[in-house]
Amino acid sequence: MQFKYQHDLVRDFLFNIFRCAGISAKKEAPVNFLTDPLEGRSTLRPADILVFGWVRGKHVCVDLTGVSPLVGLGSSAFTVGQAALKAASGKVIKHEKAFLDNQHVFIPFAFDTFGHLVPEAVDLLSQVQRVMHSNVMTPRSMEVLFKRLSFAIQKGVAAQLVACLPTISM
Q1: What is the pLDDT at residue 72?
Q2: Which pairs with CB-CB distance under 8 Å and at least 24 residues apart come from 31-36?
């Protein structure tokens, strides 16, 4: 449940940034071509964020995934960002063909609770920053994008920690 809260917090932040930048996007957009490989039928899962006409006129489905950086640590040495990269890779393997077949672009937006972002997420945010700079933002406010994202991730971590605290009866 707490990971869902963090996921939704980051998704809402990202969606609001698109809106502030004047980029046409929809949150929880129905994308009816995503299928469950085991069932072979549409699961009607929505895209976390659908950005209209973003890459060469194609719609982009942004799929957010938040992970703990310590996932799978027992099997190998700790490498910064390894868990987020693995999560993004898994999402690409699972969904990319369906998106390509349906003339959409898929961007995995994976992050870990330490704030590491996969390169695709950094690229997307950098593009949004450029749009913000040319449309609505001042140079000083440009740095706010990554700082606010970091805050949203850390707020999700704090919520997870608070949820684990024992309750005290008075």
Answers
A1: 64
A2: 31/61, 31/104, 33/98, 33/99, 33/101, 33/102, 34/95, 34/98, 35/98
